[in-house]
Amino acid sequence: MMDELWAGNSTEKITLLQTEPRIAPANVLVYDADDGLGTRQLRITRQPNSGLGGLIECEGVFYDPGVYGRHRVVDPAPRPRPTVLTYPVPDFGLFDLPALSPESQTAAQLQFAASNLDGLSYGGAFFESSNLGEATETSRAALGILLTNIDFEESECNAFLDSAIRIQLDSQSLVTVDEEDAVNGANLLAIKTSTGALLISVATAIPVSGQPRQWDLTRVWPGRFGTELFGTIAAGARCVLLTDANGEQRPGLQPISVPLARVSNAQAFEVSALLDPTKTSGAQSVTPQGRSLRPPTVANLTQVDDGVGGLNVRFMPRTRDWESAIAYWESGQEPRETDPRRFTLVLRNSGGVEVSRRSVSFASTAELPLQIHLTSGDLAGVASGEIWQEGTYLRGDSRSFEL
Predict the structure, then answer these.
(1) What is the dihedral angle through the alpha carbons of 95, 100, 104, 108, rounded to the nearest 10 degrees?
(2) What percent of the chain has pLDDT over 70?
(3) Residue 384 belongs to a domain with what CATH number?
């Protein structure tokens, strides 16, 4: 009895992949320790608990054959012995995405995605911020890295085009789909930018020979859902696959609400391994832009002389819901929204000082493209202008023009 008490004074908890279904109390588990001390034997004292992602947690005492000689040793030879898993800090991304559905949004959001890009064990991720709260994500996201630079012109962001984008995704397979399926929501990829994200519909994805988990995206539609690319996105940017080949949302995205007062202000946060809180990312910072509440920018911005010294500023409004995307594909014209659209036009002089500002509303039935007339008097001393769409909570990004 004293021998048994002495043998049980050292307890251990380990987490294993569920590869040995016979593990039960009174069994002895043989495993290779990760402390350099060689093979250990652990007598299981509690029924193992099922964990995340096919994991089980075992608790027991170190086994002494002289005390517990009558207990069965679980050593599944010739199968590989279970290996004690360690959980590094997960790879993660915080994506400031636009609203992808026509439902009204009442709060800004960040989408938290986590995984392990090097293929190591993943047991979930924990997000913590004093201002943004906490979030737990147990599903492995289709997180990835952009391996080539991206630089599209605005004129290219309205149809499918050939491309040379290469990405790496964490253990997720991309499947080539019809262009119509991609328009309808399949293979939607978000690439993080300094001010939000560029959304791309992927039609053709080709595995890179000899490079596991890498794909060449050779047929894409960039700039989906009103997202814009201003400047180059450099290789190394985080990306995440939002939908699969059937257009279904992939697991692994956890929304984090952002109060309006926190938008455009830097917020501190930390990410840790869910099963090992000691493994953390350290202090990090993110500046939410509230993309889920901002209307998209206008498109096809042009100026046309009215023949009497004035100008007509013409532009196309945009919307972000799936039905609009489908209609655009079929007719080339985005459908009207049910609510009037409000725009702000600002005119500036050569020194960048504001000369005038006006707010203009258009009915949902207004003829496209929309048009704002400026007289010769309006243009006196004006060198440039900018226009943006107003939202319920936040304004959209502006588009500039020179006179």
Answers:
(1) 0
(2) 68
(3) 2.60.40.10
